[in-house]
Amino acid sequence: MTFPRLGEISLTKFTSPEHVLDVLRDVEPGSTTALELQTNLDAAGQPGPLWNDLAAYEPPLVSANVTADDDHLVVDNELLRAARTDRGDRFLLVWVALCLADARLDAITREILTDADGHLDPAVINAVKLRATLDQRSEGAQGAKATSNILSLLERCQLIVPNKYGGSTVGIAQVLPTANAVRGAVALVGERLADQGFEAVPDRAVDLAVSIGVNAWLNLSVEEFRSAYEASDNVTAQSHRDTLPDSLAELDAQLRRKGQVVLQGPPGAGKTYVATEYVEWATSNRLEDSRLQAIIDGLPTNQRNVTDIATEVERRGLTCVWDIVQFHPGYDYTDFVRALVAQPQGDGVSFVPRHRIFSLICAIGEELARRGHEADLVLILDEVNRGDIPNIFGELLYALEYRGQAVATPYAIDGDASLTVPSRLRVLGTMNTADRSIAVIDYALRRRFVFLDIAATAEPINAFAFDADLTRQAALHLYSITAAALSDAPSGLQVGPSYFLATPDGSESSLQVLSARYVYEVLPLLNEYEMEGELDPGIVSGLRNDLAILNGLAQRDQVTGLVHHLSGQPWVTAVTTDGEANDDAANDGPDGP
C-alpha cells in the first residue's frame, strides 16, 4: 500500500526522542501553531521538518510545500496524548511517527532491520553491517551518521538494549516489549492517514496498520500485532479456587509444609493423574491457560521475559502458574536451571546466560511476590528418579530447603548470578517404584522431599465411566487376578488401575481395547519383573493359563482369545458378536482385590 507522506525526517541529523517528547508535552491542541511547534523544536536542537512529521493541523496540510509559517493550528493526536500524560508507550510512538513520516526509514526498517516475520534481525543490528547494507542500497541514507542515528533511535525509542563495543552498537543485548504500544500505534496511524484521506473501513483499523507494515516497526509479527491489539482490551477477572477436595488434602498440606513432594507408586497407580488433579484445582480449573509454556507462547517474542510474563499472569487473573518436565539420564543443570545460549551478534555469535524452566519459574514467582500477587507456582518433575539428581539440581538442593535465601549460580542473568526459590513454589515429583533406578535417588533429595505413596487399588476402576458394564466387570476381573498373582511381590511391583481403564477406539469396542492393553502392556511388564528376578518363575504363565491366553500365538490373536474368554465368564449372560454385552447381560461381577 502506498500513501502520501508530507513529512521526511533527516537520517543524517539526529532526532532525540527525549527532546521531542519534552516539546510535545507542552503543545496545546487548538492553540499551538505549526510555527510555534517548529520554533520550540528548533530551540530544543531538533532538526526539521519534525513539526510536520509529528503533528496534524487544521486546516489540513494539502501539500508538501506548506511551511510552518502558514497559519495552521495543531490538532490533538495519539502521540500528543501519550506525551502529555507520560504514557508508557510514548517513546515507541515517536518511532512509529517517524517511520510513518519517512518512506526511507519505513523501507529500511521493513526490508533491512527486520526479517520476513517482522522481527528485528540481530545480525543487522550492527554498525558495520548496517552501514555496508545502506551503502549498497544507495538510497541517500548511507553513511556512518545515518547508521549511527538509526541504531540510536532503536535504543532511545525503547525497542532494544544494544550490545556495544567502544561506543558502537555490535548487536542486541535485549529486545524490549512493544505490545503495549500496539493500540496507540493503530490509533496514531489511523489519525495520520485519515488526515491525508486514507480512512480505514470501520473495524478494520488493525488491518490498515498491518497493511503498511506497522507490526515490523514494533518488532512484531502480524499475528503478534493482532493478538496484542486484542489483548490490550481484554483483562480477565481474578479466578478463585473451589474447595480443596478431600483426596488432595494430604498432598496440599505436605506441599505447603515442605515445599517438595514426590508421589511414588507402582506403574499405572495414577501418580501423574493425582499431580494433574492437584494442578487443576490450584489453577481454578484453568489448566491450559495457566501453563507457563502456554503463557510464553501467547506473548510476542520481545515480551518473553520475567517482567512481561508476570504482567500477563496478572492480566489473566491466574491463581497458579505451572509446568511439567520429565527427567531422563541425559537431562542436566543446563536443561533445568540456567545455561549459556548462542545468540547472533554481527557476523558471529555471543554466548548469553538464559533461564531454563526452574530458574524462570523462580524468577516469575519472585516478581509476582514483589507485586503482591498471590499466585502459586507448581513445577511437576515427572520420572524424577530417572535423572542424575546432583547433576540436575546442583546448588539448588540447598535453595529448596532454605526458601527465600539467594544461592549463587554459575551464570549471571541481568547481572545477577544468584537464584532464590520463592516460598510459593511447589515442586511435585512422580516416581515409579517398579523402576530399578530408584536405588540411585540422592539421599539429599530424599531429605528435602516428602514421599507420598499412591497405592494401586480398584477404586478408580469402580469410579470410571465405562460404556458397558461388561467391560467394567472384565476390568475388575483382570485387576483382581493380576493383584492376586502379585500378592507376594513387593508393593512397588503391583500393576496400577490405569491399565484397566478402557473406552471404545474407532471400530474397536471398549472390551477389545481393554484386552489389547492387557496383552500389549500388562503382560510384557510382568515378563520384565520375572526376567529381573522380582517375580517367581511361573507366575506369568499361570496368569496366561487362567485367562486362556496361548503364548505361542501372535499378540493380535492373543487379544482375540482374551476377548472371547472374558465374554464367556459366568458373570456374562449374553454377548453380541463383536464382544459387547447385551443390555441384560450384567449380573454380579467378580469381587475386587
Automatic annotation (TrEMBL):
Domain AAA+ ATPase: residue ranges: 257-455
Gene3D superfamilies per the UniProt record, alphabetical: P-loop containing nucleotide triphosphate hydrolases (3.40.50.300)
Protein name: McrB family protein
Pfam families according to UniProt: AAA_5
Matching SUPFAM superfamilies: P-loop containing nucleoside triphosphate hydrolases
